[in-house]
Amino acid sequence: MTPSDVKATLSFSDGSPNMELPIYKGTIGPDVIDIRKLYGQTGKFTYDPGFLSTASCNSTITYIDGDKGELLYRGYPIEQLAVNCDYLETCYLLLYGELPNASQKQEFEHRVTNHTMVNEQMQFFLRGFRRDAHPMAVMTGLVGALSAFYHDSTDINNPEHRDIAAIRLIAKMPTLVAMAYKYTIGQPYIYPKNDLSYAGNFMRMMFATPCEEYKPNDVLVRAMDRIFTLHADHEQNASTSTVRLCGSSGTNPFAAIAAGVACLWGPAHGGANEAALNMLGDIQKNGGVEKIGEFIKQVKDKNSGVKLMGFGHRVYKNYDPRAKLMRETCHEVLDALGLHDDPLFKLAMSLEKIALEDEYFVARKLYPNVDFYSGIVQRAIGIPVPLFTAIFALARTVGWIAQLNEMIGDPEYKIGRPRQLFVGSAARTVKPLGER
Ligand code: SDX
């Protein structure tokens, strides 16, 4: 952080003494006002529910420019990574700060591949769930359960332990997601195969059965790998902030990641891809393109509580660059499968066009986000809708771990402990039961 030669001066109309606050500049993006001494010097807190104007940390991992619709992982534009790299190269970049060379890539792939199996005991956790349990409920349980297997071998203050925990989590998430899926459809679990790519292994664990050889479709495997890359990290979003806050207590990293899985499940966050596809399905059922106008009217009516899922973003006030890349992937996959007339994809593009021309959305800078097209392409690949967010969690695990390790590796980090504006009852006396 570079101190700015500009200072912020806080003055109070009640005659309290002024206070100077230092301003820091980052490499790119907004400056920050350092308020760490504010409470100590003024007895006042800042107030920012939802953290609209709050930087919770400094980070070197991911940068978003919401106005330009830019996303950089360690400085590399997502558009370049999605085309020139695969997901494991992106994982290496997010974890270690640089893209791997050929031998580093091979060694990293070898390490991840050799940690893809999970302890056989994990099957007994699955058996505790109903077969129709939502995969995100199962994933929250399974990821948390991993902490029971590695509790003694994870000293988060030991960089080697942090590194092996990262490898284990990246390696095991596809296995766990596939197990969660197989459990819900009553099929046997498929073990990982070490001669397959990361995405190819996942597709085989998801769709193979013991009855015949599984032949992966290279276009679908590549699309799955790109979906992982597009979801890998995204600055201090709700689930990443959850992982940082949870991890700041010094808890087991598997437990902290389980907290991230739980937060991602929400429809305002990672659950939006499932909600967006269900929304498209409902519009399709109620008349399709002709009924879009009626649906948009509902969305604009505040009392309806209806939102255009897959649209809008706290940071992007322009097109989410991931949505553009996801739409391209949609085209590729649907063409490869001969589904270019997929009604839901055509409906989504009509809905996007209408929304982008509608004053309500334009005024509020509401554009498609990563979740708007991801459901359509996952559905085309054969992923069941309830599994979409579990795949988002699979892909985001590397981002959560990289952000957690960056925090733990910062000697200045402290346990996160926000304060509040108390608006409840001041002290009062308990009356005996007979007098209440
Ligand atoms: C992800 O943070 C991240 O980076 C998240 C993520 C990541 O990679 O980690 O990018 C992944 O979570 C993407 C977002 C997925 N969620 C959705 O698609 C759900 C639908 N979107 C909304 O719920 C909403 O846009 C949020 C939650 C994403 C953002 O909400 P904000 O920033 O709190 O904005 P807001 O709710 O204050 O909305 C501002 C205005 C409001 O109208 P007014 O009160 O000003 O009249 O826009 C309206 C909102 O009602 N609005 C929408 C809308 N989103 C916002 N109206 C209709 N449909 C929408 N989708």
Automatic annotation (TrEMBL):
Superkingdom, taxonomy of origin: Bacteria
Keyword Transferase: yes
Pathway recorded for this protein: Carbohydrate metabolism; tricarboxylic acid cycle; isocitrate from oxaloacetate: step 1/2
Coiled-coil intervals, chain numbering: none
Reaction catalysis annotation: oxaloacetate + acetyl-CoA + H2O = citrate + CoA + H(+)
UniProtKB keywords: Transferase, Tricarboxylic acid cycle
This protein's record includes keyword Transferase: yes
Family to which this protein belongs: Belongs to the citrate synthase family.
Name of the protein described by the UniProt record: Citrate synthase
Originating species: Ideonella azotifigens
